[in-house]
Amino acid sequence: MSSKLTFTSRLPVAHAHPPTTRPHIGFGVYLSPEDVCKASCLTALKHGYRAIDTAQYYENEAQVGEAVRESGIPREEIFITTKIMTPEGSVEKSYQKCLKSVEDIGLGYVDLFLIHTPSSGPEGRKEMWQALERLLKEGKTKAIGVSNYGVAHIEEIKTFSDVMPAANQVELHVQCQQRPITEYCTANGINVEAYCPIARGKYLDDPTLKQIADSHNVTVAQVLIRWILQMGFIPYPKSDHADRIKQNADLYGFELSEEQMRILGMMDRGHDGAVVPQKTECP
Ligand SMILES: NC(=O)c1ccc[n+]([C@@H]2O[C@H](COP(=O)([O-])OP(=O)(O)OC[C@H]3O[C@@H](n4cnc5c(N)ncnc54)[C@H](OP(=O)(O)O)[C@@H]3O)[C@@H](O)[C@H]2O)c1
């Protein structure tokens, strides 16, 4: 499968009507400061990234939109994701909060709107989902989904909605492979997006990873992101450095062998490998 991967590879957007596709790799902007974010996004777009992941919580939605407009790239070629962090107290108020994100981004619509975390409890999750459903109906977003959700959270959606999430964005890298939820999402046709794909640099000195990287004359970061692509998941690496932005997308001149994929598969440390406190198992 992996030898056919290219930078322009696309995946189907799960549960989209009519069917549509999305880039197989994107660019993340968490902790990208307001005064730097636009330049980083422009660099990413220049180097061929066509998906960007922001959030209300990141306080840089407007800068992402500015970069896209300034890039001159046709809107329909770009896939923008944002996220609602907390419920506002009613479906109407949460909807208005989301609408403000769409307006702040200023591109007419977003491609994917996610609930950032399940941690606000069942009523909050339901309120935010219903707000997103309204946004979807009105064409303000092309798809809706979730982040940091466990199996029980997604099953819960079925009790009050016919709309299944298009995506679940979770912390996902070699050391934190999230098997229960990724297997569930794959079985239910939900796109799995990988955040912290290079574990925020935590394992770049790992000798096994270094050995695999050296065998392909690439960096450990490239091995980590390539592993996600070969697993069929969607990585969102972040960087505010042009050389790294370019490097993190330079993944198509090598392929991890079956044996290397087997070795990497054994490096899972579950929650012990996570760099973000795990929320996916909470009821
Ligand atoms: N849904 C959620 O709850 C959630 C949570 C976390 C993240 N996310 C999303 O996922 C994206 C990625 O996650 P992340 O930013 O936390 O982690 P990441 O992409 O795994 O790592 C980013 C960190 O690694 C550094 N870095 C980037 N490329 C590198 C390279 N080639 N070599 C060495 N260091 C490198 C960056 O520094 P420089 O910037 O200085 O290069 C930054 O400190 C976020 O930006 C966000 O869009 C979502």
Automatic annotation (TrEMBL):
GO molecular function: oxidoreductase activity
Residues at the active site: 58
The keyword Oxidoreductase is annotated on this UniProt entry: yes
Site (Lowers pKa of active site Tyr): 83
Family matches, as InterPro entries: AKR, Aldo/ket_reductase_CS, NAD(P)_OxRdtase_dom_sf, NADP_OxRdtase_dom
Pfam family, one: Aldo_ket_red
Family: Belongs to the aldo/keto reductase family.
The protein's name in its UniProt record: Similar to Glyoxal reductase acc. no. O32210
Organism field: Pyronema omphalodes (strain CBS 100304) (Pyronema confluens)
